[in-house]
Amino acid sequence: MPIIEDQLFRRIKKQTGQAIGDFNLIEEGDRIAVGISGGKDSYTLLHILDSLRRRAPIRYELVAVNVDPGFPGYRKDHIEAHLREHGFTYHLESTDCSAIIDAKLRPGSSYCAFCARLRRGVLYTVADRLGCNKLALGHHLDDFIETLLLNQFYIGTLAAMSPRLLADNGRHTVIRPLVYVEEARIVEFSERNAFPIVCCSCPVVGAADQKRQRMKQLISELAEENPQLRRSLIGALGNVQPRHLMDPRLTPFAPLGKRPDMV
């Protein structure tokens, strides 16, 4: 079934294009690995990037990459059928992440976070093999602001995500083109197009990320009072005023000397 190119599609496409321009996410000659998990976000990202590519003034390539985490019941065949139906270039990578997690996860550590790091490492390896210089991930606006609040509430850092980030290995650039797109719009877009949603089938799905769910709930509650809350929070990430923070790495707090009224 072809993608429905209605007003919602055009809105998401416009917001994605704006993010690409604002943060210089895609450049001439890029070969981009697009992480496809089988969720609404990654399907949306792939289809929007492909639509933008068709009319872009520059040339770039997309390769959809799926990492099978190895959990029983994971239906990567549904993902492959969708990619094939829409004519995408794709690669499916089988892994044994589930066994590695069972063997290596430390008590008290986050199951989801550890799994995400493992899968990210696999994506980098596959990107290398496929000759891709960038990795596109489907994190949306709500992911950014939830991470901002999580870091403040539970870790004590003023940090979120970056729409463009050089990976620790120094070889890959991670891009997040959906930074301006709210999750609700992605849910609606996914439902209208009947994307074949595939659950990761991990044994703790739905129970391991309670803190993030609490942030999601908090944002929804506050947004009832202030409908512009999400836009305000995402805007704050690009409107940092170091002079009004307490980090000495940003503002050196050197001695000012004695003031006359202190003598």
TrEMBL record:
Cross-referenced NCBIfam families: PRK10696.1
Taxonomic classification: Bacteria, Pseudomonadati, Thermodesulfobacteriota, Desulfuromonadia, Desulfuromonadales
Keywords: 4Fe-4S, ATP-binding, Coiled coil, Cytoplasm, Iron, Iron-sulfur, Magnesium, Metal-binding, Nucleotide-binding, RNA-binding, Transferase, tRNA processing, tRNA-binding
Residues annotated as domain tRNA(Ile)-lysidine/2-thiocytidine synthase N-terminal: 32-194
Coiled-coil ranges (or none): 205-232
GO terms classed as biological process: tRNA processing
Residue sites binding ATP per the record: G35, I36, S37, D41, V67, G138, D143
Protein name: tRNA 2-thiocytidine(32) synthetase TtcA
Matches recorded under HAMAP family: TtcA
EC number: 2.8.1.-
Segments traversing the membrane: none
GO molecular function, one term: ATP binding
Keyword RNA-binding listed: yes
Superkingdom: Bacteria
Keyword tRNA processing listed: yes
SUPFAM superfamilies reported in the protein's UniProt record: Adenine nucleotide alpha hydrolases-like
Native organism: Trichloromonas acetexigens
